[in-house]
Amino acid sequence: MATKKTNYSEEDLVASLKQNNREAYEYLYERYSGALFSVICKVLRDEEKAEDVMQDAFLKIWKSITSYDPAKGRLFTWMLNIARNSAIDAVRSEGRKPILDDITENLDRTEQNASYQPSTSTLDLKALVENLKPERKLLVDLVYFQGYTQEEVSKELNIPLGTVKSRIRTALQDLKLYFNI
Amino acid sequence: MNTQAYIESGILEEYVLGVVSPQEKQEVECLSHIYPEVKAELTRLESTLESYALQHAQNPPRALKDKIFAQMEFASEDDITETEPVLVEESAPESAAEIRIGQQSARPLWALMAVAASVVLALVSSWAVYQLTLTNGQNEKLAAQMKTLQTTADNNQTIASYYRNPDVRIIRMPGLDKAPESTVVALWNQQTQEVFLDVQNLPAAPAGKQYQLWTIVDGKPVDMGVLAQDYAGRVLQMKRANATPAAFAITLEKEGGSPSPTLEEMYVMGKV
């Protein structure tokens, strides 16, 4: 019992979390806090506040784990929704609009990234992902990480809704191939 | 059902991204519950986005972990050996059963309607006897009215008896995106395997079209017969269920029915 588990199957992890097992929560934090924190930072644009929201979100995950239903989807999807919604609520409570004004800046940045073409020999996974058509990657980031609706993205970027939808779909299919899933 | 077309429609991507309407959400959850290939694609998409997010991880400061964990209380080793979460899981079917009982008892409407119809019928009958002495022309009209009332009363009695029968499994099929206000209830007698439909609300089928009932057995749709065109306010007897279905659904098909359901024309669906 005292041996520290370094790897869990999703099923075991969920069962241990539901038993309120400390080690399972430590594993959960080590494995996923970075991904969740990154999403919170993207929404808030303020690392200090992001830490508070990260704290709230993780405690919320801990408190409401009994309501997580594996039949409805993977644990990470559920946790990401909690983290993203906490971040969006925090932005709204400050009376700010969730960083829609940063979209153009975002677009500039992804275009710069697009000009970086690594040679095939040094092509690692990250580069492959970065190499996704930038406009598609941006759309996935805006919707998945930052919680925009597809309608908002369409309006702000002046891209027809149908195009937004099909680009996001293609991007996910590309990602699926990259990650070999 | 053409699950490939459904998978390719892009709705699963939208579901995973969290941008679907509550109805679409219900639909995806229902279909992924029924069709293993839909579930598999959904899990693949979720894993993809998970890998993507892990790839973009940005670790919070080390001190944050201690700060968060200081606010949490965990089970002691002893507690863990107790199978506590099983209790939590068991409570779910119980509450579902309660809801079902609640639905049944919240439906004395049928009984009330039956009683009301019987009273009306009695009144109309005595009035009819009086009228009989007057004109023959009116007689025919009254006979027709009586027949309608009799049918309604019988119908309500029948419905009430199904809802009260403990062998009958009640499967509520809420409306999907096509017609969210629709409600059809499938009454499946698990002893006799008979299946009846109580159509509470369903848009009128357009000319040349007819509704068709399906069950999903082992991920495959099974034809349960077409709905009579005058389904409104009637209890319809459908084909017998030969196996244990995972769900019931109704699609709009060409008149006379189709060999396999048209997914885009699915109006209602309910999990067993």
TrEMBL record, chain A:
One of its GO terms (molecular function) is sigma factor activity. Keywords: DNA-binding, Sigma factor, Transcription, Transcription regulation. SUPFAM superfamilies: Sigma2 domain of RNA polymerase sigma factors (SSF88946), Sigma3 and sigma4 domains of RNA polymerase sigma factors (SSF88659). It holds the Pfam family Sigma70_r2. It comes from the Bacteria. The keyword Transcription applies. InterPro entries: RNA_pol_sigma-70-like (IPR039425), RNA_pol_sigma-70_dom (IPR014284), RNA_pol_sigma70_r2 (IPR007627), RNA_pol_sigma70_r4 (IPR007630), RNA_pol_sigma_r2 (IPR013325), RNA_pol_sigma_r3/r4-like (IPR013324), WH-like_DNA-bd_sf (IPR036388). One of its GO terms (biological process) is DNA-templated transcription initiation. Signal peptide: none annotated. Residues 28-96, 130-176 form the RNA polymerase sigma-70 region domain. PANTHER family: RNA POLYMERASE ECF-TYPE SIGMA FACTO, RNA POLYMERASE SIGMA FACTOR SIGZ. Belongs to the sigma-70 factor family. ECF subfamily. NCBIfam families: sigma70-ECF. This is RNA polymerase sigma factor. It comes from Arundinibacter roseus.
TrEMBL record, chain B:
InterPro entries: Anti-sigma-K/W_factor, RskA_C. The chain crosses the membrane at residues 109-130. One of its GO terms (biological process) is regulation of translation. Keywords: Membrane, Transmembrane, Transmembrane helix. GO terms for cellular component: plasma membrane. The keyword Membrane applies. Residues 113-262 form the Anti-sigma K factor RskA C-terminal domain. One of its GO terms (molecular function) is sigma factor antagonist activity. The keyword Transmembrane applies. PANTHER family: ANTI-SIGMA-K FACTOR RSKA. This is Anti-sigma factor. It comes from Arundinibacter roseus.
